[in-house]
Specification:
Two copies of one chain form a homodimer. Chain A has two domains: 272 residues, Rossmann fold, CATH 3.40.50; 115 residues, 3-Layer(aba) Sandwich (Rossmann fold). In chain A, helix 2 packs antiparallel against helix 4, helix 4 packs parallel to helix 5 and helix 5 packs parallel to helix 7. In chain A, the strands form four sheets. A seven-stranded mixed beta sheet of chain A has the order 1-4-5-15-10-11-14, with helices on both faces. In chain A, strands 8-7-6-9 form a four-stranded parallel beta sheet, sandwiched between helices. In chain A, strands 2-3 form a two-stranded antiparallel sheet. Chain A is built from 17 helices and 15 strands. Helices cover 40% and strands 16% of the residues of chain A. Chain A is globular and about 60 Å long. Chain A is an alpha/beta fold and 460 residues long. Chains A and B meet through helix 2, helix 5, helix 7, helix 14 and helix 16 of A and helix 2, helix 5, helix 7, helix 14 and helix 16 of B.
Chain lengths: 460, 460
């Protein structure tokens, strides 16, 4: 058998031409979104004021298994995709493990993360509908960067509401978005009603993702020819991100491999849901039985310590309600450098799969242990991972070390979602031993669970 | 004919197994290095106190055409190489040019630039010789980052003397190097004699590359089992960087293409020399006649306004003398964001090829026009280029626009040496219209030419 290369790049011909909709193969569907005014299941058309129509349809379509990727989207994908499948030979050797460690690397584009996969699709559909502008929020900045690039390409205006804390701490993230032409606003801002109200109540707040979402939605719904877009959580986003898993599966098949364990970091679930999609299909259809692990920060443990309940997606409580693992929309995320994993909820699809035990395990990791793994990986494999991605690395290393004990030659696949170029302040803190681990107390969580909505007859 | 893909990745099997030494095919050789004490041509052994032996031999070997790349070096190359060859379809379309624009992209590794190609080789040979530590200097930080990664991988200690101005302005560059275990020292420092002397004379200096080189060499020659390594200018570096051109040529051949114009940015000449190597071989051997253009900043115009003369490689005047295009080792580089192109001299090989007109043209570009090109490219091709690389983009765009006027369907290849993630302060300045263009006056240059050494009988 030919030696497996350090890195496999599929050819342009092998780029998937369709996204895969995992819901089509789920025996039980995630519970429907609810209209926040009526608590009734939301109709597709009711989403049109917020999302552009094609995306609203993708959001609510649980039966179409495959969606054609438009040619215009493929044209951008082809600049940076198929993304590489790496084999972490050096890491394996350093660990002394019989396990084989593969990673699907999504940091090979200027946005620095997998977020571009959905940003391009969402910007395209907006352009198709004749819209002229979009709004969104960003925390760590990966999504805002990706969407700025996509909007620049399609000639759309973009307002990014960036959590004020990040806005101040990450001026270079802001600069990248501005380079691609985005208007970056520190949230809460005085440009929206909800922002002004929050500022009036708490002038010194550094903002939150939930607050930025509320502002972005207000801006979208009060601006002509404008819609709101979101980089995670939603079904449509997982659909677009399925390209990660589809490519990974094709690449592994080409190598004669199939993963025993698939590991993804989990914030809103976009990377995890995309990476596992075709492998989960195999499991749902009884063809294979890979073991799936979601890894989240111990500081924001929605899967491991949250409730499976209906909740708002934002703190302003203007979004539709989704049934998901959640800490409550009032959850105050603790300081944590994996800003992309600091959301109170979790994708309804991922939540349902976890609830029904198709997603086998959720695991939380403390920040310093995550950075231990990040630095170890960087030194051995020359890729400096984003803190988000390093959660998956932590878990992959732990699983590989278990194999060392048991002697099992398991095949591990994890998602390396992005690079850490804009997270050097966090690395510096780690190197200077000033990084802390924060785990919310049961009391903290109870207080935020108390913010869960009461829904007569459904959730009392 | 099959459509040419947006991006071609050669397979691991196609990774070159040998570096190509351009000197072997040059009819006239670059003038030899001179011993700074005797002004006599330096013998290989005289370089051993500074460079490790294998590298000293590569430095002075003008007859061996191909050097085997050691397996241990190939093992790291395989993590990030072959690097992609891109076709800038979107840029072509936006320009409305009949030209075909290709770029060889070297930003696909954590170091963010082509510098890793030589860093890995130099660290390997040092390890092979049983050395325990290395020293180097870095300006913009790309070389320091690359070498930090390589030393981390091979278990070597590394002291990086970072120009103090960069050290203060680019804390995140410093943090990346520290993450990979390097000891980063602001230069001038109090850790060396030459540093202390400079600080005593001028306590507020923000340093220079030439000064950092002097400190790194002093440190290397006064530390047991330690040598100095350099990221550009030297023949050995161009040898290692030939992998860029070798891959580019193989990829273009696979597409049935050959460049009419090859464009590289030029600081010390490492990228330019590496990119053009196999195409220049074709020209030297009369097989093909591509047109070569070197692009440098108008603020540091060694090829376009410098003298072809013997000069020191550092301001401390401790290095061997090289005959090259130079502005004089006393040249004070002006503020310019392309820190990697801010060196007073130019690779002796590149200099000789330019002097003999095999390298057809050198061109200088002003900073704001370079950033115009950088932002245009980023918006269309989703890659945010390093300011250094953007010099080549500027030229590629200008050449493509000429083709638009003449109707010629020329094939253009340029080197996209790296990404601009750590240069966002520069992009911000550009976006805020506070970026200035600086061009040294003839008087400024005359003053620095006066620092050229007098060499009896050779250069009076």
């Amino acid at each position: 058998m030919a030696k497996i290369p350090h890195r496999l790049n599929l050819t342009e011909d092998q780029l998937p031409k369709q996204w895969y909709n995992l819901r089509a193969d789920m025996k039980e569907q995630p519970d429907p979104l609810l209209n926040p005014a009526t608590f009734q299941p939301i109709r597709t058309e009711e989403l049109y004021p917020i999302f552009c129509e094609e995306l609203a349809q993708q959001e609510t379509d649980s039966s179409t298994a495959y969606f054609d990727i438009p040619d215009e989207v493929l044209d951008i994908y082809k600049i940076y995709r198929p993304s590489p499948l790496g084999r972490a030979y050096n890491l394996e050797k350093a660990l002394g493990t019989p396990a084989k460690i593969y990673y699907k690397f999504e940091g090979n584009n200027t946005s620095g993360s997998h977020k571009l996969n959905s940003a391009v699709a969402q910007a395209y559909y907006a352009k198709q509908q004749g819209l002229t502008s979009l709004t969104t929020e960003t925390g760590a900045g990966q999504w805002g960067t990706a969407l700025s690039e996509a909007c620049s390409y399609f000639g759309l205006n973009l307002d990014v509401f960036m959590v004020k804390g990040s806005f101040m701490q990450k001026p270079y993230r802001k600069a990248v978005m501005q380079t691609f032409g985005a208007n970056v606003v520190a949230s809460p801002s005085d440009t929206t009603k909800v922002g002004r109200a929050i500022l009036a109540a708490n002038p010194d707040t550094t903002g939150s993702l939930g607050c930025a979402i509320s502002e972005a939605i207000e801006k979208a719904t009060t601006t002509p020819n404008c819609r709101y877009v979101l980089g995670s959580v939603l079904n449509q986003v997982l659909l677009h991100q399925s390209i990660i898993g589809l490519e990974a599966k094709t690449a592994m098949e080409q190598l004669g491999e199939y993963p025993d364990i698939v590991i993804g970091c989990a914030g809103g679930g976009s990377n995890l849901g995309g990476l596992i999609a075709p492998f989960m299909q195999d499991k749902l259809l009884g063809r294979k039985n890979p073991y799936f692990i979601a890894v989240e920060p111990a500081s924001c443990p929605s899967l491991t310590r949250g409730r499976y309940a209906y909740d708002f997606c934002d703190t302003g409580k203007v979004t539709p309600l989704a049934r998901m693992y959640t800490l409550g929309s009032g959850f105050i995320p603790s300081p944590n450098h994996a800003g992309g994993l600091r959301y109170h909820g979790m994708s309804p699809i991922v939540s349902k799969l976890y609830h029904d035990r198709y997603l086998d395990e959720a695991r939380s990791a403390e920040q310093t242990k995550v950075f231990d793994a990040a630095v170890q990986f960087a030194k051995l494999e020359t890729i400096l991972p984003a803190p988000e991605s390093a959660h998956a690395i932590r878990c992959a290393i732990d699983e590989a070390l278990k194999c060392k004990e048991t002697g099992e030659e398991k095949t591990i696949l994890f998602g390396l979602t992005g690079t850490g170029y804009f997270d050097m302040a966090a690395y510096t803190q780690y190197l200077e031993h000033s990084m802390t681990d924060y785990v919310p107390s049961d009391g903290d969580l109870q207080a935020s669970f108390d913010t869960l909505p009461k829904i007569p007859g459904i959730q009392d």
